Amino acid sequence: MSQPLEQRNTRVLMTWLPLVMLAGSVFFYLIVIGHIRHMKQQQLLLKQKNVWNAFVRDPLGLPRSLAGEYTISRNGRSYVVTTYISAKEYRHLLIKIGIAEATIFVVLLITIFIVNRRASVRLWRPFYSTMKAVRGYDIRRNTPLLLDADTGIEEFNRLNQTLLALIDHVDQAYRNQKQFTENASHELQTPLAIIRSKVELLMEGAGLDEDSAQLLQEITEANERLSQMNKNLLLLTRIENGMFPEVEPIALSALVGRLSDFFREYHEDEAIRTQVSIHPDVTIAANPALIEVLVGNLLRNAYIHNLPNGWVHVELSDKALIIENSGPVLDADPERLFDRFRKGRVDNRTTGLGLALVRQIAQLYQYEMRYTYGDGKHRLWVLFRRGDATGYPK
């Protein structure tokens, strides 16, 4: 599991530092014990030497035994001098050294932890400042990325220089791509319009047989699809480039009702039954043109991908727009239904960009899209508030 570098550094420090300090403390304790044993031995030898010298100077005047201090005994021709010292003081000294060492150990550990945390916060402050600036950067706003040239830390200076160079290359590529897309879409409109007008002139001309009329009709339909595809691609590009900043209150109830009536009348000859349930006074804040595209594409998709004598249900509440329709099983993966140029089934009347536009608009306003299919019924939800999905399937 990923962790912030500061936490990982503190974790490593607090894992190994106590072990190193504990090993050092044990080593120090063993040295103290050895030194105390040496001191006891030297003190006994010194005391023994002093007692023997005193006994040699005055054998009769020096007592042969003094409780807790020494004992002089005769062992044949030799004398045995035994001296004593109290081990209690040395034990007390050992305990005091142990307590002092433990106290120093804890205080030092806490001090190092606090100093390390504060030093880490201070040292990593330029990094977090850089990350904040990068997160707030939006290439579509054409605003420069402001990073500190001198953070006081060489590595962070190089990081900022690298990021600025990278952003500059990405920004240039983005501008070039945006300009190319807009120019290409704009330039395509002229030849498409010429093709449309020329075909109309041919269709109005005299001596046109049935086969030629059929071919011209197919050319017209293909030209219309190409024109619509070009408009949709241009619209997708403009949405991605943030070119629809205008937001205003939209009477969604009236919009959904008007578009539902339009598509019901437009597909009236297909005998598709339409049922509409609209909660009154539903209002959202968005760009009116984009919301009309979203609702229109969803309704168009429901009618185009339907069955003869099928049905369409439209439901609008203050939480969601729900569109259900009868229809065959999808030929494509439902998970990729909203990808560009993806079609649920082969249909020459569609460009494969309608639902991609819907998803792009939904993402722009942070709506949540959900789709399910079962029992011959396609269901699509547009949830206006993320997280507010009680009663709706995942």
List the helices and strands and how they pair.
Elements: H1 5-57, E1 65-66, E2 70-75, E3 78-83, H2 88-135, H3 154-204, H4 210-240, E4 248-251, H5 252-266, E5 273-278, E6 283-286, H6 288-304, E7 311-316, E8 320-326, H7 354-364, E9 368-374, E10 377-383
Parallel strand pairs: 5-7
Antiparallel strand pairs: 1-2, 2-3, 4-6, 7-8, 8-10, 9-10
Helix pairs in contact: 1-2, 3-4, 4-7, 5-6, 6-7
Describe this structure in words.
- The chain has 394 residues and is an alpha+beta fold.
- Helices cover 57% and strands 14% of the residues.
- The protein is built from seven helices and ten strands.
- It has helices spanning 5-57, 88-135, 154-204, 210-240, 252-266, 288-304, 354-364, and strands at 65-66, 70-75, 78-83, 248-251, 273-278, 283-286, 311-316, 320-326, 368-374, 377-383.
- It has a five-stranded mixed β-sheet, with helices on one face.
- Helix 3 (154-204) runs antiparallel to helix 4 and helix 6 packs antiparallel against helix 7 (354-364).
- The longest helix has 53 residues, at 5-57.
- It is rod-shaped.
Quote the beta fraction. Answer: 5-15%
Distance between the termini: 27 Å
Shape call: rod-shaped
Number of helices: 7
**What is the topology, as strand order, of the major beta sheet?**
5-7-8-10-9
Structural class, by secondary structure, is alpha+beta
**Biggest sheet architecture:** 5 strands, mixed
Q: How do the helices and strands follow one another from N- to C-terminus? A: HEEEHHHEHEEHEEHEE
Helix content: 55-70%
- Using only C-alpha atoms, the radius of gyration works out to 44 Å
Number of strands: 10
